[in-house]
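### Sample
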Amino acid sequence: MPTAPVLIRLEKVNKHFGSNHVLRDVDLEVHTGETIVLLGASGSGKSTLCRCVNRLETIDSGRITLAGEPLPEEGRKLARLRARMGMVFQSFNLFSHLSVRDNLTLAPVRVGGRSRTEAAERAGELLARVGLADKADAYPAQLSGGQQQRVAIARALAMDPEVLLFDEPTSALDPEMVGEVLDVMAALAADGMTMLVVTHEMGFARRVADRVVFLDSGRITETATPDRFFDAPRTDRARDFLSKVL
Ligand code: ADP
Ligand code: MG
């Protein structure tokens, strides 16, 4: 998707935790409508990269921009920026004391300034989109892990984000529930959502990614189409990684 505008750009991004150099001169462009799957061994920096993009972590040097604007430092501007990016984590992080509907309407009402009616209507649409139209009144504990994660995706969509960041969204799920979550993500990608996805689901990566980015000890060592990456990885480290996960 080289002609679509760049939505997220990382330029020479470096991040340390103490003496641990976790991101090394990371350059990455995510184009509007593109799905990028970020692969790499455990500890290679995938989560840190995602967390730097929505500024849950600060970077030590380099630059990250969203639609050309640098990420704001703090305060209200940062809250507005976060609203433009939806994040879905491994653990579902739903509010357990709130119904599914209220999980979806909380941020739009409190942060987005929507009316309760408007937010509830939108929540209904989003629940239908993730196949859970009948669960608006349920509480998270009454749902399976796969259903909870689909609610988390609907909640991330409720603020109409420009991009969704996924950090191993299916890693905590029982195997039989992985497919239903990946199907929702694939449908979003097909609808043109911009997505940055960390996953170990190689079938998904191959089927859905526009580009695969491989992170090795904090450095991007390969960026390729999925077919190229999976059929002919360029580096020994990528080959080694694939031999373990495929
Ligand atoms: P991945 O998601 O690819 O498994 P992470 O981004 O979680 O990798 O971690 C990259 C490196 O940074 C690891 O060495 C990890 O121990 C370290 N790290 C991650 N988060 C923190 C933190 N909050 N404090 C200190 N070290 C961290
Ligand atoms: Mg991680």
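The mean pLDDT is 95. This sample (ABC-type polar-amino-acid transporter) is used throughout the tutorial notebook.
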